[in-house]
What does this fold into?
Amino acid sequence: MSERRTIPSALAGSSLTGSQHMEYRPVAVMPDVRVVKIGGQSIMDRGREALFPILDEVIEARKQGIQVVLLLGGGTRARHIYTIASELDMPTGVIATLGKYIPMQNARMVQMLLAKHGGLYILPDDFEKLPLYLQLGCIPVMSGMPPFGYWEKHEEGSRIPPHRTDAGVFLSCEFLGAKRAIFIKDEDGLYTDDPKKNPSATHIPRITAKELMARDLPDVVVERVVVEYLPRARWCKELQIVNGLKPGQVLAALRGEDVGTIISA
Amino acid sequence: MTKLVVGDGRTHIQSQLMRESLQDRAVLSKTDSARDLQIFPDVSMVSIGGQSIFDRGKDAILPLVAELAQVKKHHKIVIGVGGGTRVRHTVSIAMDLGLPTGGIAQLVGAMEELNAILLNALLAPHGSMPMQRDHFWDLPLYFDAGITPIAISVPPFHFWEPPPLEGAVPMHGSDFGMFQMAEVLGMKQAIYVKDEDGLYTKDPKHHKDAKLISKITLQELLTQMPAENILDEELYRTWAEAKNVKRVVIVNGLKPGQLTRALAGEDVGTVITKDVP
It folds into this structure.
């Protein structure tokens, strides 16, 4: 019987799992880019009143030379399709595929609004063209949903895909090698409980991922996988959650100021 | 009649998840059930090893293609292939260059695809076609026409590959990708065609005292996982949380007839089972 014909390399014969005893000095791809999420339920579903002032601040930041990539969340239409698909016992991978469409709609809406300021709708694989778009002064806009689709894994005790648009923003930031992912929501950040339901919930300005996990809160402001991944990240070591309904917060965050809540690795 | 709900500044469509935080465990648990819809329960997934089969060249590939040409007449199968030594070479260069994990994940799929093209060229006269990424809804048409689809085995995580548990090598390779395809489509079983009789207690290529594990449950396996595993560990981790796949078989593709027996439901090679409701 013929032998395996192997190309000699540091990993030849390796199972490609776990740490590989290979020196690894990571290179940041585009460390100066601000990777920013605009929430679906929190911002887009509020319409013009909430969105327009945020876009004005993004345009202002772009004029100041700050490179911004916008990623969009889903919102209530995503929840609606998740509800119906869950009733039908759809596998998580099917639900994750359904979940791609609404953030895409929202990204297209934002692109139309930003077109005259260089808004550009891009697809996941267009990261390789970002250097050109950003040098031209454009504001790339894309869906925040990671492209896992049918390959999204089921998570114990839930049919909802664990990687949604928060995860997409974090993973985009991590790939691009930027230090902080910015999430524009309709709250000042992290609270001890859902402030929309519990008026005695208090604000947390800064917390580590470890502290956050130790609290084991029944509810958190960003997707749990992001908090889980943060300590393992090479580049994206901070998540900043800002209130897009408060004027000036978005621009401050884009300028690198510590507003809202910062969750660090 | 669908109702739009306003009043908190946002416009909601009425649904069970309306206004709810999708991070809230109590909310999430309401969405789950013991089983998922089984979309293609009479289909088996067949994954052919890159290092174990394709890197050996003609002598290993042609007899296996002849066997596939026979079994495809009697069984509905989706085939996927691994990338083998070229994947390892790609990753070792990319690691040396310091490329991010997501960048490495974006690169590797091209190497599996080369083996998929070879397999298609050999199997096409017997009825095979490359299946586009997630064109699963074409599968009934493929099977009705006697065409065996050859799928893209590496999952589309690409630039979004999550940070690995250890190191920087992407965790989601072709073993995982093919498993997940079987899982999401509710397939009958996943068969991995390798160059060993199955899973051993140690790597049989380096240890003479390695023992073949012929039958084991996933639950048992997770408590005594061999350090050198013929399948990606991520597959087992994913399977533990999964709901559909009941049976994973590892067979020796260098021994003619093993794949045929596995497809017929015989216990051959290593059979790993999971109790599902």
The CA atoms of residues 231 and 265 of chain A lie 5 Å apart.
